[in-house]
């Protein structure tokens, strides 16, 4: 019975101590820094009147949901931006590759025109028409200017 009474008294004391309003003190330490505590090591310490209130759980949840929505929107925006940048890099790489391919083809065409003695055009019915010397010079000059344009 005595043991039961002591346990009940200890539990009651713990509940009362937990429900008691704690005092908060402000003091300056030896280095001049302001410290806040519930048990000041030295006196004088200024007792502060700290008002506390219960947390509104609904308000906290609403705030957390708003912050989460904002973080999701920011993450989605970053993802879209990085995807757009990746697309731009891919387009630039493709453009550079395309330009290099055009340069190679233009160079091959110019070398073919420069080394061949006779060039021809194929007609609608498959007949060959050979270019005159003036037309051959014009085709070579055109191939040279195309090569110069693509191979800069």
What do you see in this structure?
With 152 residues, the chain is mainly alpha-helical. It has a domain at 22-52. The protein has helices at residues 2-19, 57-115, 133-150, and strands spanning 24-28, 34-37, 46-48, 120-122, 128-130. The chain is rod-shaped and about 110 Å long. The chain starts with a helix and ends with a helix.
List the helices and strands and how they pair.
Elements: H1 2-19, E1 24-28, E2 34-37, E3 46-48, H2 57-115, E4 120-122, E5 128-130, H3 133-150
Antiparallel strand pairs: 1-2, 1-3, 4-5
Q: Biggest sheet: strands side by side, in what order?
A: 2-1-3
Individual helix count = 3
What is the helix content? 55-70%
Proportion of beta-strand residues: 5-15%
Summed up:
By secondary structure, the protein is mainly α.
List keywords for this structure.
single chain; 152 residues; mainly alpha; two-stranded antiparallel ribbon; 3 helices; 5 strands; 62% helix; 12% strand; disordered N terminus
